[in-house]
Design a protein that fits this description.
alpha/beta, Elongation Factor Tu (Ef-tu), domain 3, Rossmann fold, 2 domains, six-stranded antiparallel β-sheet, six-stranded parallel β-sheet, 5 helices, 20% helix, globular
């Protein structure tokens, strides 16, 4: 397998998703259509030659050619995320390579039913799947259930609210683990079996499950789904720990 070459991408848009999360739109001189769920490596090089590199999931659908969105949390002491949030402005250039990965990927041709479980910024690769589903005109039954600490932490909130109203077989739910605003009608607390049952109903053995988030979330979610009768082979997970 040939190695993936680094290329210089231009940042053309920056969108504030939450107080700590931004989406960066990058124009790629050598664009390769990705599979929803894949990621790019992003590398920064200082004048003295010091390099810092991190991997970020692609948030955009492959139908958008020539550019990608990377949604990045600003992490405390994060070298790369701090630079992206505090220094980078539209017109700047960054070094990237990708798309990378293939195990944690869903395409419309694979069909459904689909269950997407995201913890915090684990929603990002799942959002690429949701956006691809819409762009491809898929009506495969799909349920997305995301866990965030607070209402202001919900990434892509307005877009997901709009998608939830389209009525093409996609249903989106959130649970807030730390605090809930007045009038909140979503779920509260950590992901639980009753919550999963209410959002998705009885799970089929054919359900394709994608889970992404911190390790503890992923392990708990995978256990709940298996307890509902979904075979392990139908469950794909991607987990992350602290990084910059």
């Amino acid at each position: 397998m040939a190695s993936i070459e680094w290329q210089i991408a231009e940042v053309i848009r920056i969108k504030q998703e939450t107080p700590k999360t931004r989406s960066f739109t990058l124009v790629l001189p050598d664009f390769t259509p990705h599979r929803p769920g894949q990621h790019y490596d992003l590398r920064l090089t200082a004048e003295d030659g010091y390099q810092a590199q991190r991997s970020y999931s692609i948030a955009s659908e492959p139908e958008r050619t020539g550019e990608i969105d990377l949604t990045i949390d600003r992490l405390e002491d994060g070298e790369v995320s701090g630079y992206m949030h505090d220094v980078v402005i539209p017109g700047d250039r960054v070094e990237v390579r990708g798309p990378i990965g293939g195990y944690f990927a869903w395409e419309a041709a694979l069909g459904g039913p689909l269950l997407l479980l995201g913890g915090g910024s684990g929603i990002v690769p799942l959002m690429a799947m949701v956006r691809h589903r819409g762009a491809a005109g898929s009506t495969a039954p799909a349920v997305m259930l995301n866990s965030f600490k607070t209402h202001e932490d919900i990434i892509y909130r307005e877009e997901l609210e709009a998608l939830n109203e389209v009525g093409n077989g996609l249903r989106v739910f959130h649970t807030l683990t730390r605090s809930q605003p007045a009038g909140w009608n979503g779920f509260s607390g950590r992901l639980a079996a009753a919550m999963l049952e209410q959002a998705a109903g009885p799970l089929s053995r054919d359900t394709k499950v994608f889970i992404c988030g911190p390790t503890a979330f992923v392990e708990a979610a995978a256990g709940l789904v298996q307890a509902e009768g979904v075979p392990a082979g139908q469950i794909k997970t991607e987990r992350f720990g602290p990084s910059g």
